What we know:
Largest sheet: none
CATH architecture: Up-down Bundle
CATH topology: Na+/H+ antiporter like fold
Distance between the termini: 56 Å
Number of strands: 0
Low-confidence stretches: 168-172
Radius of gyration: 20 Å
Order of helices and strands: HHHHHHHHHHHHHHHH
Number of domains: 1
Amino acid sequence: MSKGLAQWSQLLLISAAASAILLYFHLPAALLLGPMAAGILLSLRGSTLSIPRPFFLAAQAVIGCMIAQTLTSSILGVLLANWGIVLVILFATLGASALSGWLLVRYSALPGATGAWGSSPGGASAMVAMAQDYGADVRLVAFMQYLRVLFVAGAAALVVRFTMGNDAQALSQEIVWFPPLDVNFVWTITLTVAAGVLGRLSRFPSGVMLFPMLIGAGLQTSGWVTIELPEWMLALAYMAIGWSVGLKFNRAIFMLALKTLPQIIASILCMMLLCSLMAFGLTELLGLDFMTAYLATSPGGLDTIAIIAAGSHADMSFIMAMQTLRLFSILLTGPAIARFISRYAVRAEAV
């Protein structure tokens, strides 16, 4: 067996084992975190493997369609009915994430763009996908984003148990890997390829992910297409992104991540605390149950929050409305915030 084939075999086996362990403990994003951890492990051991660019772009397009599945017509009505409170929470979250990124860059060894994208409370996979387009170190951004996913997932599990008691449902259901497929799957593949290629040709930043997300949401809302993404297809997409990120790690990056770990954890906990306080405010102002309010304001990734919300009795419409609006806001404001932080967050020792 050649050295390259042996490394790929090791990567696949370790990824499967790590994902199985994470799935056993019902951890959201397990199918992404497992391959990423496997990639990091082999990379630190000197592996020379890398994921071809077309596979990474294809994975981005699939993630765009996955997000489009949650963008229903009811979201707009929910936002308009509570627009004042929604805007207050949105601006508070964006301001807190910008301040967090600014403090991280000023008082740690993180580069400016990396600190900004790593602290952005949008969809974790979306932030990782966009970070590289704006000059950030995608390895550190992924480390920060998915560390936050772990914290948020654990906290959400505790909130579910606290608010629902013995009636709490498992956060992840039995996965059906190969469900029966119909013509909707053919249309989904067509949408993914066509919109992804269009996004690539447009040269729009992260267009390969954004175009399938926007076009897919429009087609599904209008009733033209029902997006159908079987678990095996999502698993392949998550695996491609996890490997792409993990295999880019090296010892220097890993040591830098460890060096800044206390500051990163502190920023995550502060963001979670702020979002929890806003959740308490929502329960008083709108009469929402705390589970719904917490997940709506939670700084976890959109896909992760959707998985957690599906395993509870929370109001999915309100949760996805808030999370989707924040994701789009981060996509629109992220580049400007990253440039501002890179320019003005001068490190304390340099002053």
